[in-house]
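Appendix B: complex inputs.
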Amino acid sequence: QVQLQESGPGLVKPSETLSLTCTVSGGYISDYKWNWIRQPPGKGLEWIGDVSYSGTTNYSPSLGGRVTISIDTSNNQFFLTLNSVTAADTAVYYCARRRTNWPFDSWGQGTLVTVSS
Amino acid sequence: DIQMTQSPSSLSASVGDRVTITCRASQGINRWLAWHQQKPEKAPKSLIYGASNLESGVPSRFSGSGSGTDFTLTISSLQPEDFATYYCQQYLSYPLTFGGGTRIEMK
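Resulting structure:
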């Protein structure tokens, strides 16, 4: 059974870069799209973007070009980079898996990232 | 972007109640709709895909229906473990979008 685990700093300063890693175990990283989703405290879910095995990406326009998602297939990991963060980027960040034309079928446990000086 | 609107945003119910949540898409999404359940401090869990197909292991008291722009999630007899927040999500097109959530609270 596939497992996803987010890792990265829990505190980032305003204007700096947020960087997270999702490590995939128990399954193949091919044939899926690998997603980042976030949830501000007390609020709903927001899709950030995804990356395929081949490195093709899709992003939410709401993040204004600040986001980059990449993948390292040899180590079964994918990554999120979010530039120029503000307090509004404080959220629990989840990684999740889905196939094309399917919804999310596996989620990481989530990691809280706080943006504060 | 396809906007997803859920109603109500919250409701109070008792164990054994029949509960219905609605989700409306701003444009037709055929049946490319999923429902997710989220308990406090936990990651979401996928319940339904394709508007009406239960994920493996999901109890049969959950059901989904709808097509196009209007969808419903029904819990036929609410159980204690069902008190949670539920989100609809479209996966027809990018950007993938979620409804605002419906929180089911104990009456």
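Chain B touches chain A through 23 residues (CB under 8 Å).
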